[in-house]
Write a structure and sequence with these properties.
The complex is a heterodimer of chains A (866) and B (79). Chain A is of the alpha+beta class. Chain A is built from 27 helices and 30 strands. Chain B starts with 13 loop residues before the first strand and ends with a strand. The chains are: A alpha+beta (866), B alpha+beta (79).
């Protein structure tokens, strides 16, 4: 480690070269030669020349490394080596070795490409290798060689070539005769440097014969530490086990060779050594049984440590765990501001913010230290200027207060107004991580305003969310400036607000702004006061005020807007000078991702104001429902007798129509639709009749249900449910469709055993004429279950598939960027799009993806006039 | 069988070869080299009938959902 007095040396990395370790290099970097498979002697001390040799690094705290003299954590460990009795092929280079053997002459070891062609294509091959990598380059070279006329014959010494095949995983054959790694190695040794370069290898750092191992590096013990179990037993790492096998077999091979054992025995041992070394590098090689523990579970060797989701890269490097974070169940609190997050007090006492003591905040921070870790706005740690961290406990508080002075850092408890980053997985877009301001609250859940559920895609059926507390001034400033809920209001995908009123807030505002609504002025003032609006000067001075007038109070005075609502009675929404002149407020204007009301507020008055108004709208809606009462009842689906009769009439008619169609079909008089079989035509026509019947019952229901019933209010305002849902409850559930068709599966020619074969009537093919309230017949219930299960399966199977699809897309697009010249380029500055989105529009600054040219012109001319 | 000229098809955007001078201008305006540009194969169906060689620049004029009409450039490569 460098101390402060030593000068730091800065060097710029110019190139990084990857290569293969040469035997010489392996020996040079080794701290020890490993000769015995034993690990410890009788006293439990590591054996010299064993796999846990002390020269390979330290894994016990307190000891010093025999090689470098550093302590644990300072010494990164040192490699050792073993010399192998016979050379062994490195499994990762099999494909390279094969190409080298196949495309070089077996007699004179020259590349099988005539010198004329080498001259002709050499440069182009090398350029290809630089652009697209050595694999593509080798493929091109293979094509060149196989397409030349003299394939099968060396262009230099004219020797006829034998065919080399590989028997997976590691055995090479030349015309049915096995070639040993020794033979392969000696051939590779003879290759010329110039030829090697054509294969995409740099002979300075990769000599092909190094791909056949004669010595094996032994990784330091620090990367395969043993763990001591509670029983005092030592448990060794998987790699150590594997290395033990290698050393043991290598020893035996040595002994057998020296004793002059028969060739078969030597070869068997050699193959065994090859197997152990292969599985040491990669235990998931095809055609090789993985090496296992005694318990039967496969060993995790080098490749498995790095690869895949649980591997070093995705798990440890790209997926690090973090401190100063928290996670629990979330619940709603409409009284919070939109950009606040409610943090449980017990969490606030564990999460801390570091604050540096200066002479001006000394007393302020001293008070925190004095309260200590157990009283609420207290502190958990004090950090001295030298970096030493001191935990505050009842015993240490006194001493800590005494030594506090400017330069110390106090880690104080989380408090109201602190910055936090709030996140819900899966983090699919940037709105999945937004910055909120902390509100410390009692109880044990994280709380958020229900209006921000949409960007997080959160609900409260048990969802959990994460909270992160930035620890530096820079991080806090960045989070607040770039990630605050306010800044995320307009979606970069469609240019409209992603935050809007939901559920009760929509129902409430709808009820409030309907023309029929009015209330005494006093009541209106009560209502506004309950949501924190105290300036009621905009409310007309009348005994009774209308709902629209109440809603207008929270709008800015100079705001004008024209839009549309969902309602059929008052489709046109007009806001003039901050007064709601006509139209109702429903999902089209207040909801997320719809309508320009919120977008225009944002544009004209800025993000903070827009968010504030939205918060007030939300609270106003909820407050009204609190005052008025709102529920959904079974009686909402009651129908008068005439309506019920009308529905039965519709069904009677539909059944008749279908029966007619079927008899037409049976007598062959049905006209075929173009491109359909007779049967398909029938199905289509029946579906049409039945859907019409369902729609008609829907209409009857909509007409006859009390228009003020809460269920219909929710459906009309867009808060929850559709008129169709209501029709299914009160009128009829309708046709159950499986893959766009009526239900056909089940038994041969029939859906259930209670029907006759080839029964094409609606009730035998999944038509449910009862309503959910009236109750379903057994067959109907069964049909509904079929469709319900299919839908469930569909979602369950689709989620992971689309997740993977998204992962690939995100990885492919992650470093695309819009440059200053408007082009979209990748990390290599290669052009992907010449103009961003072909129209250069930043969607998050547009209104629903388009620029309102008319308004911009009007604004500009207005400015010029003034 | 009737031979169909794909270039006349409604879904095939207009492909034009740029002159060397025009090509240099385009390269300069994006301050890029031909290596940074998207590529098109010489044997691409839309280029049959136009006399192109390696390194030529093709201007493609497409209909666009967002911008009405948009231009795109590609550099001819052999394989």
């Amino acid at each position: 480690m460098l101390s402060d007095s030593e000068p730091y040396v800065y060097k710029k990395v110019v190139t990084v070269v990857f290569g293969v370790l040469s035997p010489k290099m392996i020996k040079k970097m080794a701290a020890a030669k490993i000769v015995t498979p034993e690990l410890y002697d009788k006293e439990g001390y590591p054996v010299d020349g064993g796999l846990m040799d002390v020269r390979l690094g330290v894994i016990d705290p307190g000891l010093r490394c025999k090689t470098c003299g550093s302590k644990l954590k300072e010494c990164t460990g040192h490699f050792g080596y073993i010399s192998l009795a016979r050379p062994v092929i490195h499994i990762s280079f099999i494909s390279v070795i094969l190409t080298l053997l196949r495309y070089t002459c077996m007699e004179c070891s020259r590349i099988m490409l005539p010198s004329a062609k080498v001259e002709q294509y050499g440069d182009r091959l090398k350029r290809l290798g630089k652009d697209k990598g050595p694999d593509v380059m080798r493929k091109k070279l293979k094509d060149l060689i196989t397409s030349s006329k003299t394939a099968g014959k060396c262009p230099y010494c004219k020797a006829k070539q034998k065919k080399i095949v590989i028997e997976k995983p590691t055995t090479f054959f030349e015309d049915d005769k096995r070639i040993s790694p020794i033979e392969i190695r000696s051939r590779l040794e003879k290759l010329q440097d110039a030829d090697i370069e054509l294969f995409g290898l740099n002979p300075a750092s990769v000599r092909p014969e190094w791909m056949i191992l004669t010595v094996l590096p032994i990784p330091p013990v620090t990367m395969r530490p043993s763990i001591t179990l509670e029983t005092g037993e030592r448990s060794e790492d998987d790699l150590t086990h594997k290395l033990g096998d290698i050393v043991r077999i290598n020893q035996r091979l040595f002994e057998n060779i020296n004793a002059g054992a028969p060739e078969i025995i030597v070869e068997d041992l050699w193959d065994l050594l090859q197997y152990h070394i292969t599985t040491f590098f990669d235990n998931e090689v095809a055609q090789l049984p993985p090496a296992r523990h005694r318990s039967g579970q496969p060993l995790k060797t080098l490749t498995e440590r790095i690869k895949s989701k649980e591997g070093r890269i995705r798990h440890n490097l790209t997926g690090k765990r973090t401190n100063f974070s928290a996670r629990t169940v979330i619940s709603p609190d409409p009284l919070l501001e939109l950009n606040e997050v409610g943090v449980p007090d017990i969490m606030a006492m564990k999460l801390t913010v570091p604050e540096r003591i200066t002479e001006w905040n000394m007393d302020y921070l001293k008070a925190f230290v004095k309260r200590g870790p157990k009283a609420y706005p207290g502190a958990n740690y004090v950090i001295r200027p030298d970096g030493k961290k001191k935990k505050l406990t009842e015993d240490t508080i006194e001493a800590s207060i005494e030594e506090l002075q400017p330069g110390y850092i106090v880690e104080r408890h989380l408090m109201d107004g602190d910055i936090a980053i709030f996140n819900r997985q899966p983090s699919l877009h940037r709105m999945s991580m937004m910055c909120h301001k902390v509100r410390v609250l009692p109880n044990k859940t994280l709380r958020l305003n229900p209006a921000v559920c949409f960007p997080y895609n959160a609900d409260f059926d048990g969802d959990e969310m994460n909270l992160h507390i930035p620890q530096t001034e820079e991080a806090r400033a960045e989070a607040e400036l770039l990630m605050l809920v306010d800044t995320q209001m307009i979606s970069p995908r469609y240019g409209l607000s992603v935050i809007g009123c939901i559920q009760d807030a929509i129902s409430g505002n709808y009820l409030l702004t309907r023309s029929s609504f009015s209330m005494p002025r006093e009541g209106a003032i009560d209502l506004l006061a309950s949501i924190g609006v105290t300036d009621v000067s905009k409310l007309p001075k009348k005994e009774v005020v209308s709902g629209k007038e109440i809603f207008g109070v929270i709008l800015p005075d100079d705001f004008s807007f024209v839009g549309r609502s969902k309602s059929r009675e008052e489709p046109e929404v007009v806001i003039k000078n901050g007064r709601l002149v006509s139209g109702v407020m429903d999902k089209n204007n207040l909801g997320e991702g719809s309508g320009l009301l919120l977008r225009n507020l944002h544009k004209r008055y800025g993000k903070q104001f827009a968010l504030d108004v939205l918060g007030k709208m939300f609270k106003l809606g909820v407050a009204l429902l609190m005052k008025r009462g709102f529920t959904t009842a079974l009686s909402d689906t009651d129908l008068p007798k005439e309506a019920k009769d009308a529905i039965w009439n519709v069904f009677g008619k539909a059944e008749q129509d279908v029966a007619e169609l079927i008899s037409l079909y049976n007598s062959g008089q049905l006209d075929m639709l173009p491109g359909r079989t007779l049967r398909e035509t029938l199905e289509l026509k029946i579906l049409e009749v039945l859907n019409k019947a369902r729609d008609e019952t829907g209409k009857i229901v909509a007409m006859n249900v009390a228009s003020d019933s809460h269920t219909i209010v929710m459906a009309i305002s867009g808060a929850r449910g559709t008129p169709l849902n209501l029709a299914q409850m009160a009128g009829c559930v309708g046709q159950q469709a499986l893959r766009g068709k009526r239900i056909e599966i089940g038994y041969a020619g029939r859906t259930l055993s209670s029907f006759k074969r080839d029964d094409l009537t609606p009730e035998a093919r999944g038509f449910i004429k009862n309503s959910f309230k009236a109750g379903l017949k057994p067959a109907e219930f069964f049909f509904q279950s079929i469709v319900g299960r299919d839908a469930l399966m569909d979602t369950a199977l689709r989620t992971p598939k689309s997740g993977y699809l998204y992962r690939r897309l995100a990885n492919a697009l992650q470093d695309l960027k819009v440059e200053y010249d408007g082009t979209v380029r990748d990390s290599g500055k290669r052009i992907v799009q010449f103009t961003y989105g072909e129209d250069s529009i930043d969607v998050s600054k547009s209104e629903g993806g388009v620029l309102n040219v008319k308004r911009i012109v009007a604004e500009v001319t207005e400015k010029e006039k003034a | 069988m009737k031979k169909i000229d794909v270039r006349k098809h409604l879904l095939v955007p207009r492909h034009e070869k740029l002159s060397e001078k025009e090509k240099d201008e385009v390269l300069k305006s994006y301050s890029a080299t031909t290596d940074d540009f998207p590529r098109i194969l010489k044997r691409d169906a839309a280029l049959q009938g136009i006399n192109v060689k390696f390194g030529d620049m093709i201007k493609i004029t497409r209909r666009s959902l967002t911008a009405g009409q948009t231009v795109f450039y590609r550099v001819v490569v052999l394989s």
